[in-house]
Amino acid sequence: MRSHARVVVIGGGVVGCSVLYHLARAGWTDVMLIERAELTAGSTWHAAGGFHTLNGDPNVAKLQQYTVELYKEIEALSGESCGLHLTGGVMLAGTKERMDWLRMAHAKGRYLGMHTEIISAAEAKALLPLMEEKEFAGAMWDPFEGHLDPYGTTHAYAKSARIKGAEIVLRNRITDLVQREDGSWDVVTEQGTVHAEHVVNCGGLWAREVGRMVGLELPVLAMEHMYMLTEDMPEVAEINRTTGKEMITALDFEGEIYMRQERGGILLGTYEHDCRPWSEKATPWDFGQNLLEPDLDRIAPQLEIGFRHFPAFERAGIRKIINGPFTFAPDGNPLVGPIRGLRNFWVACGVMAGFSQGGGVGLALSNWMVEGDPGFDVWGMDVARYGDWTTLGHTNAKVRENYARRFRIRFPNEELPAARPFRTTPVYDRLAERNAVFGDMVGLEHALWFAPSKAQAKDDFSFRRSSDFAHVGAESKAVREGVGLLEISNFAKYEVTGPGAEAWLETLLPNRLPAEGRMVLTPMLNEKGMLIGDFTLARETADRFLILGSGLAEQYHMRWFLSRLPTSGVAVRSLGLDLTGLQIAGPKSRDLLARLAGRDVSKQAFPFMAIDRFDVGAIPAVVGRVTYTGDLGYELWVKAEHQRALFDLLERTGEDLDITLFGARALNSLRLEKSFGSWSREYRPIYTPWEAGLERFVSTQKPAFVGRDAMLRARDQGPVQRLATFIVDAHDADVIGDEPIWRDGTVVGWVTSGGYAHWSQASVALGYVKAEAFDPAAPYEIEIIGERRPARMAAEPLFDPKGARMRG
């Protein structure tokens, strides 16, 4: 074993071997993989080996497509067989709601280049004779599903990496990781110490333990997972005989089971509701290629449905039951990327679907390490979607919830209940008393909408307009006609201070910095000129700035800030819940603030985009003249100790102004009719400011900032796609995101977000259209739950297009 490597990859499962191969393929040949036992010795060796391209996040789905296409490459290079069986498969729906879900998934696949097809139950029966046709409403066919040999595939990755120059060291456990002052690592192993510039944690079942070596508690948990192998079945032999092919794969959502052919029988697995975590607090290092004790009673409810849906199973003998541990993140997607504040330490773990996602994970991480950017949008996998607020107990509860509902529908208005409430603000009980229906954003409770009674304070889950529709409409009307009150503590807040703060922010952000007491809107770009953030930037004094942004991206942005922080002269910190917020918005909001402010808040004295510190009543506050509603309004930021008092004061003082609480869904309705985009939907690292319509918030005259040259090249080359607002002739359902946009019978774009704009009484969709198909005068269609609805581009925002109310 060498004493030095540019990269040490920890873990010899399919993910570790994929990362190693992709690094070597990218030209980093001085790379080493260290495995405590043998390749595949964690979860890989007992995996069922299925693969598919469908994922709830379209960007993850693209990486799954790449993974499947990669197998032929590594087979050809290594000479090792992956045991690839590209059989195709059906996803079976037993209910109308599930058929709606499949239609939406099929529509999403249109702009991803997938080749799925919605078929009837009879057509599915022709493809899969084992099924009981009357139990199903229909299905979706995907020709790019199948299964492979986990052992052979992992060794094909490993041999391909070796051919490219990588080294693999087996039977050598890592015992410690020590970082040097220059950011490099001493990787301490049983066979000696390796000095490495970078470390990648692909530890799988031991990823938590590797993370703890550097003070990191990763939100991953291993769950017991069972599948069974039947004895040879005559029904399978008949399918093989009559078709001349192997049986296709199948996923039965109502039965919550998956299946494929294994030799002359069937491999059948399930994600049971009565699930069991494994080694909840620590994974033993001496756990080898062991299986866990089977427990058929736990999966009996799923098997009973399976016997009804596939009667031949009831007659089949069981040859073997496999019960082994697999790791999951709380939302079921991988954890990939660099760790905030920890130089040259990377993770690729929680990859439950390793044979669907392993290749894409390896590609994304190798690009990130070699090029400084993953090369495409990996937000759905980025480890930065979790933060310091995660705990062992919270992870345990959310992983169990995710596992038990793996094959269940997640409706767009469905909030999952496990481990809640977890993080709350001082006004949480005030909102609950007023019948708030809460959502969970990065573990923090925030009000979605308010019901007229406790009994009505719940969502009826649906893909269509639901029980909140009229109430959200009333909240939106109250804001537009009077004054609304919204808690905004779930925004991210950052403080930047020091004598070098101005110079640092000048190089970090493309817009010009504001004067003291003023705010500006500004995006943030990566080196490729792509959007990685959108902020409100406020300058309070010469060397103190406040940055406000998306709460979803707080860890993501702090990682970026810290990675570019100079060694002295600038300090940046996330204020988190030390600073809490309330917003008042609507034509009467200035009247309300004027009653409480210890200063003049008229348009002349406190204009649009002004910020100042003054008392609101007796409460010290930072007050900004801006709101995301696109209306007259103010953001009031106070220490947590003052938030309840401020809330009560605003309600009491605004009573005769008919002050009304509103929630996140009304805010969404209000911002849509202003054509305001949002982070993670309209603004992501695959769009330039010119494509996203943010060019007015960048300065082409500034001499230097991150991404400037690439941004200017993008401007000169012209946009590949452009963001547009559409008015949709919807029926009883609005867009939720990722629907295809059609023109002249061709898919020309995709929806990023949308909903019903209550004040304007219009169904609105925001989305990107290919530049060559962008024409405000052209007729378009947007596909909603399988139905193409007429849509037209809006030439300007539906509400206050000139911004008179917002600035007034």
TrEMBL record:
Residues 6-367 form the FAD dependent oxidoreductase domain. The chain crosses the membrane at residues 7-24. It is an enzyme of class 1 (oxidoreductase). The keyword Transmembrane helix applies. The keyword Oxidoreductase applies. Keywords: Membrane, Oxidoreductase, Transmembrane, Transmembrane helix. One of its GO terms (molecular function) is dimethylglycine dehydrogenase activity. Residues 722-800 form the Aminomethyltransferase C-terminal domain. It holds the Pfam family DAO. Belongs to the GcvT family. This is Dimethylglycine dehydrogenase. Its EC number is 1.5.8.4. Residues 371-424 form the FAD dependent oxidoreductase central domain.
